[in-house]
Description:
Blueprint: E1 7-11, E2 16-20, E3 27-30, H1 33-59
Antiparallel strand pairs: 1-2, 2-3
Amino acid sequence: MQRTYTAVVKRETDAWIGWIEEVPGVNCQEPTREELIETLKVTLAEALEFNREEALGAAGNEYEELPIAV
């Protein structure tokens, strides 16, 4: 399942900065807009995987995973 997230990107004096609105802590800085977008994608994927592993680890042995649509 692929989900779309919202990146906020902004040109600063000597770099591009950006973050993902829906996932706190996913923010990056790169010299070009293209590099920033790629780095945001990689960082977002890593953050989602880390959060998933942490959530499943906290669940213990018996749990159920359910898709929730909003």
